TrEMBL record:
<dbReference type="GO" id="GO:0005829">
    <property type="term" value="C:cytosol"/>
</dbReference>
<dbReference type="InterPro" id="IPR052703">
    <property type="entry name" value="Aromatic_CoA_ox/epox"/>
</dbReference>
<dbReference type="GO" id="GO:0097266">
    <property type="term" value="F:phenylacetyl-CoA 1,2-epoxidase activity"/>
</dbReference>
<keyword id="KW-0560">Oxidoreductase</keyword>
<dbReference type="InterPro" id="IPR009078">
    <property type="entry name" value="Ferritin-like_SF"/>
</dbReference>
<dbReference type="Pfam" id="PF05138">
    <property type="entry name" value="PaaA_PaaC"/>
</dbReference>
<dbReference type="InterPro" id="IPR011881">
    <property type="entry name" value="PaaA"/>
</dbReference>
<dbReference type="InterPro" id="IPR007814">
    <property type="entry name" value="PaaA_PaaC"/>
</dbReference>
<dbReference type="GO" id="GO:0010124">
    <property type="term" value="P:phenylacetate catabolic process"/>
</dbReference>
<protein>
    <submittedName>
        <fullName>1,2-phenylacetyl-CoA epoxidase subunit A</fullName>
        <ecNumber>1.14.13.149</ecNumber>
    </submittedName>
</protein>
<dbReference type="InterPro" id="IPR012347">
    <property type="entry name" value="Ferritin-like"/>
</dbReference>
Amino acid sequence: MYTQALNTLDPQAAAEDSVLEARFQARIDAEEKIEPNDWMPAAYRRTLVRQISQHAHSEIIGMQPEGNWITRAPSLRRKAALLAKVQDEGGHGMYLYAAAETLGVSREELVEQLVSGKAKYSSIFNYPTLNWADIGAIGWLVDGAAIMNQIPLCRCSYGPYARAMIRVCKEESFHQRQGYELMLTLCRGTPEQKAMAQDALNRWWWPSLMMFGPSDTESVHSGQTMAWKIKRFSNDELRQKFIDATVPQGHFLGLTFPDPDLAFDEATGHWQHGEIDWSEFARVVAGDGPCNRQRLAAKRKAEADGAWVREAALAHADKRRQRQAAAWRVAAE
Ligand SMILES: [Fe+2]
Ligand SMILES: [Fe+2]
């Protein structure tokens, strides 16, 4: 990455870079995948490290609001599904850290950025889960929004990220289905259960819409990441797709959305929505959401509590390597 900075002082090297850059863009335009050992512009690498690591951190922190309810699931069936889902999210985090590592950054460095509070993760996980219906609302809405974001990432220009997304999306669709089925069960239950489902929708709807990020007019990275085919759709386009898919599902449940301006536009075929409170989004992203401190504190504690496991695993791997090497020496003699 240093070479490119130095090249600005060297006209010949700069000319070589622009040839490489043109060739790189031509490959992207031809829908070829970029692989770890291929030449890539420093900014492309930086953008991907930021995006993939933020994605990984979101999966890992995202285990907390739901993990909180595993011991309180109302039946064995619900507990098994929730346990599997939370475990999947941990797996997604691991895939994604591995994908980020192919870009030359270490997992230790990324985890350090998370626990030190330097790295960002999805703002949605800084909201609390107050009752069991929240588990349904998260699966239905949060995983539903994640799918909208992640399906186009299966075609991302960076090979390792695109391939990780294919498997992740299959699991996300199970998460969405279990959440919706939970909501359906509550909505067909007692009036109290239906009221719980409505309350959960009321609290999770707006934060779910914020998951797609700021409006296109405000988003600084959009243009370049689209040209690099990291992103395929703008934030507003993805948000609209999500709203169009989700509103009829909510109506099927017999629930109402906490947006008085929500209306179907016959002319465009889209659901129009009211103004999103971007000041709330900015506050939560900046660290002042309802649970930011709690989430980071829990992650720090887990890191510290697990330190001995990592050390033991490394020591064990080292011992095995040494034994293997000794066995090979004996065999060679
Ligand atoms: Fe996930
Ligand atoms: Fe998920």
